[in-house]
Amino acid sequence: MRKSTGMISTLVLGAALSVPATAAQAAPAAASVSTASACHSLIVKGNSLNDKAISASEARSYRKAEKYNHSARGKLVNALNECKSAHDARVLRRIVHDAATTIENAEILNRRAYVEHDRGAGKGALHNEYDARRTLHDAIKSS
Fold first, then answer.
1. Cα separation of 121 and 73, whole Å?
2. Concatenated DSSP letters of 73-132
3. What is the pLDDT of residues 9-43, one digit of tens each?
């Protein structure tokens, strides 16, 4: 059985609702900073997943590499939407789009390497993943 009168939750709720007017006015500027931060964060996550795909491709685990490529491409597609308000948005979005396209090609080659036991396709996927790594490093520097 509850013994509290609910006074604590009332105090916490009242403190949360008493937002000063200056903080409410500063919210739009903080939103653009958080979008740039989200853009950078998604690019870094895509780069990390691409590194995992490279590691899996080097170990000839093409199915695992394909899954990492798919996840990395998803992060980069989300980054394209978040990077609309970045400093050099057009350049950054072009770089991220190029990396996403390269990773998509690597994903297709990894699928072919897994299904058809084609080692040449696996090597091609690995080369595409290395190209995407270089492109993503440029994107990280730009964001």
1. 19
2. HHHHHHHHHHGGGSTTHHHHHHHHHHHHHHHHHHHHHHHHHHHH--HHHHHHHHHHHHHH
3. 554 445 554 544 544 444 444 445 577 788 899 99
pLDDT tens, residue by residue, 91-103: 999 999 999 999 9
Left, alpha or beta for 126 (phi > 0: left; psi -120 to 50: alpha)? alpha
Interatomic CA distance for residues 29 and 16, integer angstroms: 21
**pTM (global) more than 0.90:** no
> Which token pair is 125?
């996927």
Output the average pLDDT for the chain.
83
Report how far residue 5's alpha carbon sits from residue 72's, in angstroms, rounded to the nearest whole number: 50
With beta carbons less than 8 A apart as the criterion, state whether 70 and 53 touch.
no
53 secondary structure, DSSP code? H
User: Which of 140, 136, 142, 34 minimizes the C-alpha distance to 82?
Assistant: 34
